[in-house]
Structure formats: C-alpha cells, structure tokens
Specification:
This protein is an alpha+beta fold. It has six helices and eleven strands. The longest helix has 23 residues.
C-alpha cells in the first residue's frame, strides 16, 4: 500500500500452522521481500534481527534522500521468539528477552541514523498498537495501573506509551498528557512536508502544535471514538472524560494468565453507561455518570455524530459515511 520496499510477513505472526492453540487453521507463514516470497517460515527466532538489519540497510542506502521507514516488529506478539544473542538474558523470562532484543533493534536503528549523519533531521516515533494480551500471562506484559488489556476499550487496551525524538523541533524532556491517536500521524507528517492529503475522508488531524508544546495548543479533535469487533461503538473520549456504552468485554477477572505460551481463557463481563475522568482516575475505578449527567449527555451527543457517520451495531445503526478499505488488485 504505497511503500517502495517491503520486507516481512503479510499478517500477524500467530497466523501460521505452528500456532500452539490453533495448529490447523492457518496457511504457511510466508516471508516476503517486496512482492516475492523468499522463505516459508518454520521458525521465527531471527525475525527481529533480520528486520532490524533490513531497516539499517535502508537508512544507509537512503541517507542522501528524504525517507520514511516503518518498522512494525511482529514481536512481542505471541508466539514469542528471540535470537540466541538475547536468549535467557533477562530476569523476566522469554518475554523479557524479547523486549531486550527490541531495545537492541531501536538502538541499531538510531545508531544508523547517527552514522549516516541524519539523526538531527529525523523524526523518530516509537509506540505500539494495543495493550498486553493478558490471557497469555508470562508471555505478555502488564498495563497496570490501567484497567484490562488488549481487545478492550478500557485504557489498558488502548492507551500506549509514545516516545518521540526530533532535535530542534520537539522540546527535549517534554511530557505530554494530551490524548492523541496514531490516526493523527498521517496528517501531521503531511503538513510538515507540504504533502497533499487524500481526497477521500480520513479520521486523523494535524496535532503538531500539541506534540511540540506550542503555547495554548490543544488537540483539534472534539472526540476520539473506540470501535471494536463488527463496528461496535464501545466508548468516546473527549478531553479527560471517557464515556462507555453498554457492551460485553473480555476479562481475566483477577485470574492469572497462562504460562509457556498457552493462554488461560477469558471470561465475559458487561459494562453499562459509565463515565470516568482520566485525569483523576487513570485506573477507571470510579463511575461518575450519576454525578455528571450533563457530561454524559454531551458525550452521548458526540457518539450520535459518530453513529450517523460510521454506524454502530450495538444500536443497530448504519452510517452514511462507511467506506470500504483500500485494496490492491493483482
């Protein structure tokens, strides 16, 4: 989808015949270089290292040209794999070893930027897509003090650390507590490089003023919306207020996750219409819906705007702005 070069796998690394809990449900896992399958993966031990080496090579080959490098490592998604150079090196078991290798990968990429003399003119964004897969226990991380984890709209499922570096542009040591989403990266980058945005609607907005701590900067979004599964609107966030709508969600309910790569099963729980102030209650422990009915009403109004545009299966709504994803024809 628009990249000049590609190296990696075409989908999640657990979608392969050796998945420990679904060994027959997936086709062979192919490793691609551009559009050519160069290998069928029987093992993923060296995948992090190989992706890192390709990233470093890309930087060296493009040091005299503007470039965009996107490195979404399959790890630490399960099943976990680590190269021999980091095996049994951490005090956190295999998961800790994997994180050590990812740290090494970032270091190698940053060293390549330094070696090629482009580090002072490169914007580095380091983040992730979702919280920990709690059912996998010792093969998963922790979201504490956030509530729940991956696969839910609770903060433990969607709030991720984000570290950025852009010398002379982003103030060193600046900590930002304003919520942003990865959907905002595209329009923000486009504005910085004077590129045209797509002619079709997109969901992100330019948040450069917030990232760079400009005076009186505020997020241009009125709200962010949390959809899940088959177009279910689970929550809306506006400022520090987050309103949840009645829905079922998966939870370990205080039970430990699994061990050795085999997950323990989730249980199902259900939330009602619940309101939380994330500035005062990052763990989402105190429902304030009854105390602030006007806030609830305002956020419900924002949710209605989303339902009109994108729909909501929970309220049996079809959105007028629902659009098909982009596809490439072969």
């Amino acid at each position: 989808h628009g990249f000049d070069e590609f190296f990696g796998i075409p989908y999640s690394n657990d979608m392969w015949p050796k998945h420990p809990t679904n060994p027959t449900g997936y086709p062979p896992l192919s490793l691609f270089e551009n559009e050519e399958v160069i290998e069928t993966l029987e093992d993923q031990t060296d995948l992090t290292t190989r992706i890192t080496e390709k990233a470093v090579d890309f930087i060296h080959r493009n040091q005299n040209n503007p470039f965009f490098l996107y490195v979404p490592h399959p790890q630490p998604h399960v099943p976990l794999f680590v190269s021999d150079k980091f095996k049994r090196k951490s005090e956190r078991g295999l998961y800790g070893d994997v994180i050590m290798e990812l740290d090494w990968s970032v270091g190698q990429i940053m060293k390549a930027l330094e070696d090629t003399g482009v580090s002072e003119d490169t914007w580095i964004i380091y983040t992730s897509d979702n919280g920990p897969w709690l059912s996998y226990g010792d093969h998963s991380g922790s979201a504490l003090p956030l509530r729940e984890g991956k696969g839910t709209a609770w903060e433990g499922g969607v709030r991720e650390p984000c570290v950025m570096r852009f010398p002379g542009r982003i103030p060193a040591g600046y900590e930002c507590d304003t919520a942003m989403m990865t959907i905002d990266i595209l329009p923000t980058v486009a504005n910085l490089i004077d590129a045209d945005l797509p002619c079709h609607p997109i969901d992100g907005l330019d948040v450069w003023s917030v990232i760079t701590d400009q005076p009186n900067a505020s997020n241009p979004h009125t709200a962010y919306y949390f959809y899940y599964k088959t177009n279910e609107l689970h929550a809306v966030l506006s400022g520090k207020w987050k309103l949840y709508f009645p829905h079922s969600y998966r939870t370990m309910n205080g039970r430990p996750g699994g061990t050795g790569g085999i997950p323990n099963p989730y249980q199902q729980a259900r939330t009602g219409t619940e309101l939380y102030h994330l500035g005062n209650d990052i763990s989402e422990t105190t429902d304030l819906a009854d105390q602030y009915p006007k806030i609830v009403e305002r956020l419900q109004g924002l949710a209605e705007l989303a339902r009109e545009d994108l729909g909501d299966r929970l309220t049996d709504r079809n959105g007028s702005g629902v659009r098909e994803p982009g596809r490439i024809s072969r």
